[in-house]
Amino acid sequence: MLDVRRLRLLRDLSQLGTIAAVAKIHTYTPSAVSQQLAALEREAGVALLERSGRRVVLTPAGAVLAKHAETVLSALEEAGAAVAAAGNELSGPLHIGAFPTAVRTLLPEALVTLGRDHPRLELMVTELDPADAPEALRERRLDVALIHDYDVLPTAGGQGLEESPLLEETVFLAVRAGSGFAGIHSAADAAWIAGTPGTVCHAVTLQLCHTAGFSPRIRHYADDFAAVLALVAAGQGVSLVPQLAAADPPSGVRLLPLGARRRTRIAHRSGAAGHPAVIAFTEAVRASTAGYLAH
Q1: I want to staple 97 with a disulfide (CB 3.0 to 4.6 A). Which of 122, 129, 142, 169 is the partner?
Q2: 66-96 pLDDT, tens per residue?
Q3: Can you say how many angstroms the Cα of residue 30 is from the centroid of all Cα atoms in its chain?
Q4: Average pLDDT, stretch 262-272?
Q5: pLDDT digit string (tens) for 275-287?
Q6: CA dihedral defined by 269, 271, 273, 278, rounded to 10 degrees?
């Protein structure tokens, strides 16, 4: 019988590429991961790993088993969802991940609804960048998450996850009122305010500027859009701001709509779509999003 925990390690190795990376996300030592994968090889009766230079790679048999491991893990999620659906009342923790603007605008009303309708559900919110959410879901640190990408820089959660669309927003170029900017092409020589490197917002700033034919001269790094808009109002540069963050800009800021769109999705592990807590969250956040946009 193949051990499910070891199958998860093999699946993660197929996605992350190194034993060190697998060890990091599971808070194991690399030696412990290697030992568990060696035990899985004994259970399978075939070689699953082989050396390639200084790295370990999956053998053809290992790649086949890693693919089936994804199916097994998804089936376990479905089984857990079915058991939860057979219960009389939702209870226990629900770990929710979301990016900062969603935490501020879309989540509060959804949390109120969930708390009212399912008082035994323990709601736990973690604010994080969308780039970090897929890994947190696969590691089971989150049960459901709001993630986003941009149409000019599409991304996908990857193996082991399912997503459904929630919202599309206009992206604005935020400039100081009274400035002569007419769009992103006119901001080639401007100072820029961007998200910290490694975030989705930073990547899309580079992408949109490169598409416009220049590399942005980034002067400030800020991930909170309220801080970004304050810096723009103070004449410290221009920045990209999505619609949710631009609902109430400070005086002294002008917003120029661009052709780009930010796209928010609801993500969870494959097989968890039928879990009643995931269903309840999805319904609540869809209702709160519709209500927020209607205001």
Answers
A1: 142
A2: 888 878 877 777 777 676 766 667 888 999 9
A3: 26
A4: 93
A5: 899 999 999 999 9
A6: -50
**Domain 89-152+269-294: which topology?**
D-Maltodextrin-Binding Protein; domain 2 (3.40.190)
Nearest to 282 by CA among 167, 170, 128, 137: 167
- Residues counted in the chain: 295
Structure tokens at 234: 């103070």
pTM of the predicted model as reported, rounded to 2 decimal places = 0.78
Cα–Cα distance between 228 and 56 in angstroms, integer?
A: 43
- Residue extents of the structural domains in the chain: 4-84, 89-152+269-294, 169-263
What type of residue is 154? P
**Domain 169-263 indexed as CATH 3.40.190.10:** yes
- pLDDT band for position 114 (cuts 50, 70, 90): very high
Cβ count within 10 A of residue 117? 12
Fold classified for 4-84: Arc Repressor Mutant, subunit A (1.10.10)
Cβ neighbours, 10 Å, residue 221: 14
What residues have CB less than 8 Å from 20, skipping those under 6 apart? Answer: 30
Contact 19, 10 (CB under 8 A): no
